[in-house]
Design brief:
The complex is a heterodimer. Chain A has a domain of 173 residues: 3-Layer(aba) Sandwich (Rossmann fold). Helix content of chain A is 36%, strand content 27%. Chain A has eight helices and twelve strands. In chain A, β1 and β2 form a beta hairpin. In chain A, α2 crosses α3, α4 packs across α5 and α5 packs parallel to α6. Chain B is α/β, with parallel strands linked by helices. In chain B, β3 and β4 form a beta hairpin. Chain B has a ten-stranded mixed sheet with strand order 4-3-7-9-12-14-17-20-22-24. The chains are: A alpha/beta, B alpha/beta. Chains A and B meet through α2, β6, β7, α3 and β8 of A and α9 and α10 of B.
Chain lengths: 258, 480
């Protein structure tokens, strides 16, 4: 479904992604872990289409070239990104924002727009998923939200948008354990045979709640190791130090069941 | 009104010797402004002597005045002698019903989306439509008449309620107030008059649409609203103008009088032609709007300004009576080469008076936006309060935002607060919206509308929707 081949990204003269390869099949959940500065967030933004990077390589979703598309076209193609730092939009209510977003992609896809009344039902279902109260819909987008509310709002948006590919960038950062549980439950409920997910995280903790099919270790702009969820447990015990050294000698890792 | 129009027709037919032309089905006075022009306008409108005298006094004052140059506006010199001061659309003399309105005029209003036909009208909005200088249709008069409300063209009010007009005309904006007000007082063509009797809550929103129709005709509207004791009225003024190459001068005067415990809410959506992307053409909009609030009265100005090449406008409230309240909510958008110098004046005279000013300025492309406001606490303004908030949003590197607050406090118990902010639409906000599927223009419009939310919330519902649409339209092509 998602095919990434020799992906490079740089800002100005500084290379960040240095030849990243990844294949994500339909219905799979892939975790990408790595130390700070390894390029995890850049990878997410590269998929979503943020301006400002020099990009090389290939990224296709269901065979379509994502790199050629504007961010909104990627959204219509089914890419959803859960932001590490969700953006505040004062004065725009959450419900209006969500409905505009959903109708924008529906319009692009040639589907009928959803009216306010029908949308309320869609939103209600999504809100139940992330245990949000009604008044949440009528507050300005992320403005004055707590860290936990912002992340729950991202999952709420994902539930409404029903994406083909969800890229969740450090959704666990800044969450207490209760909020983490709610967010993870929301993500798990949205898993399905037609939906793929890339879960980006620094800590193994999230993967206790969202069990990935594959775990990849991203170091210095490349995936240096891939495995099943036990790879995450290894990282929990040993940190990233072994991988950071690893790139200098190419020796096989011990203790990893690939 | 029909009599007035018949009178105009007769005068027009007789005036060819003065050089009136009737081609394009419009009667246009030759360019130029002298005392004779003033007399001519007054005669065409069959005005009483006191009003002619009043006009002549204003004209004499105007001749001794100079254009103000303190605003942050670059304006090409205006040749007042090249402007025609009278244009009236040709009309059937008697209008028994809406069906008799000139089809071309009806078509023009349809294009503007103005719901003239009763069946199309918003259920509780009365429209007094103005084409160039003469009111052509007034609707819903009977419902209003039942409530004792007078809502008519200014000319008609002069004929039918001369005592009310005479008592209040110039009582808030004297003829010598400023250059443009003096000009307007001398040559005003028509406008609207509203009187709400004691204790009456006006049963519907009152609405007027203006439109400039002819080339090179100045527009000098005069509006007077008098809310008698314990009454309430909400009034909406909306303007649209077609594309023109020549700059057109618009100098209106609006006077509001709110007597004891009365409330007037005055909302404006202004979309005059702003000129093209090279700064050619567009309306010059010099407006004097002022209200007098008596004891326990309340005045609320709300304006959404997206049009005009030049906007010079400071809706003001004289808080004369104790405990009177003044409010000003404003969205001013300048794009292309538009320049706006706008704000509010709150003059506190009475004790325990309070005022608030919420101003949102948006500058796109090469647009320049200046907030200029005065808060004045007179010696008598015991415990008076003002809160002012000016927020500016910049959408391009070439655009500009400027804030010029004047504060004069002569009473030590008065409190004045001023807050100002300037921000840009963040790339991260645009990216966030685009990641959710919105295109760049829709995203920009949404963010800007959010910025204006506090002001839009003050508009009557249906007009808030229109204002948002207008803002989005004005932003088209200004992204990036």
């Amino acid at each position: 479904m998602l095919h990434v081949e020799n992906l490079t990204a740089s800002i100005g003269e500084t290379p960040i992604l240095k030849g990243l390869d990844l294949d994500v099949g339909a219905g799979q959940v892939h975790a990408i872990m790595g130390p700070n500065g390894s390029g995890k967030s850049t990878f997410a933004h590269t998929l979503a289409g943020r301006d400002g990077y020099e990009i090389g390589g290939t990224v296709t979703l269901d065979g379509a070239d994502l790199l050629e598309m504007e961010p909104e076209a990627r959204a219509a193609a089914g890419v959803f990104m859960g932001f590490q730092y969700p953006v505040e939009i004062p004065g725009v209510n959450n419900m209006y924002f969500l409905r505009t977003a959903l109708n924008s992609v529906r319009r692009t896809r040639g589907d009928d727009e959803i009216g306010a009344r029908d949308f309320l039902a869609v939103a209600q279902e999504a809100m139940d998923l992330v245990e949000m109260k009604q008044d949440f819909l009528y507050r300005s987008v992320n403005a004055g939200f707590s860290g936990g509310e912002k992340k729950r709002n991202e999952i709420l948006q994902m539930a409404v948008m029903q994406p083909r590919l969800a890229v969740l960038d450090e959704t666990d950062s800044g969450l207490d354990i209760d909020a983490l549980r709610v967010v993870a439950a929301g993500v798990n409920a949205l898993r399905g045979p037609d939906r793929s997910m890339i879960v980006i995280t620094h800590y193994q903790r999230l993967l206790d709640y969202i069990k990935p099919d594959f775990v990849h270790v991203l170091v210095d702009g490349k995936i240096v190791e891939s495995g099943d969820h036990t790879l995450a447990l290894h990282l929990e015990d040993h940190g990233y130090a072994g991988f950071v050294n690893h790139k200098f000698d190419d020796a096989p890792l011990s203790g990893v069941t690939a | 009104m029909s009599e007035t129009i018949r009178g105009i027709e007769e005068l027009t037919e007789a005036s060819y010797e003065y050089g009136f032309s009737t081609d394009l089905d419009t009667d246009v006075a030759p360019p130029g402004l002298t005392e004779d022009t003033v007399r001519l306008i007054s005669a065409k409108k069959d005005e009483p002597d006191w009003l002619l005298e009043w006009r002549l006094k204003a004209f004499a004052a105007w001749q001794e005045m100079e254009e103000p140059d303190w605003a942050k506006l670059k304006i090409a010199p205006i040749d007042y002698q090249s402007i025609s001061y009278w244009a009236a659309p040709k009309q059937k003399p008697v209008l028994e019903s809406m069906d008799e309105v000139d089809p071309e005029i009806r078509e023009m209003f349809d294009k503007l989306g103005i719901p003239l036909h009763e069946q199309k009208m918003l259920s509780n909005v009365a429209v007094d439509a103005i084409v160039d200088s003469v009111s052509v249709v007034t609707t819903f008069k009977e419902t209003l008449a039942d409530a004792g409300v007078i809502f008519s063209s200014f000319s008609e009010a002069v004929q039918e309620h001369p005592e009310l007009v005479r008592e209040h005309l110039g009582s808030v904006v004297p003829v010598r107030d400023n250059f443009f007000a003096a000009l307007n007082s001398a040559v005003f063509s028509d406008g609207s008059f509203v009187y709400i009797p004691k204790g009456v809550r006006c049963p519907m929103e009152l609405s007027t649409y203006f439109r400039i129709n002819s080339m090179n005709t100045g527009q000098f509207e005069r509006t007077l609203i008098v809310a008698d004791e314990d009454s309430h009225v909400s009034y909406l003024e909306g303007c649209t103008a077609p594309q023109r190459d020549e700059n057109q001068l618009h100098a209106a005067v609006v006077e509001l009088v709110a007597k004891d415990r009365a409330e007037i809410k005055y909302s404006t959506v202004q979309n005059w032609y702003p000129g093209d992307e090279n700064g050619v053409g567009g309306i010059y909009n010099f407006v004097t709007k002022r209200a007098r609030a008596h004891t326990d009265a309340k005045i609320s100005w709300t304006q959404v300004e997206t049009g005009s090449a030049i906007t010079w406008k400071y809706p003001s409230v004289i808080l004369q009576g104790d405990r009177s309240i003044g409010e000003f909510y404003s969205v001013a958008l300048t794009s292309k080469h538009q320049q706006a110098d706008t704000g509010s004046k709150m003059i506190h005279i009475g004790a325990d008076t309070s005022s608030s000013i919420i101003s949102k300025g948006i500058s796109a492309a090469q647009g320049q936006n200046t907030y200029r406001g005065l808060v004045k606490m007179m010696r008598s303004a015991e415990d008076a309060r003002n809160y002012t908030q000016c927020d500016s949003l910049l959408l391009s590197k070439e655009s500009g935002a400027h804030t010029v607050p004047y504060i004069e406090v002569k009473n030590p118990t008065a409190q004045v607060e001023h807050e100002a902010s300037t921000s840009t639409v963040g790339e991260d906000q645009l990216y966030y919206c685009r990641q959710r599927g919105m295109n760049e223009e829709d995203a920009m419009a949404m963010i800007v509308n959010g910025f204006c939310r506090e002001v839009f919330d003050e508009l009557p519902m249906e007009f808030a929707v229109e204002a948002q649409r207008l803002l989005s339209m004005s932003l088209e092509g200004s992204v990036g």
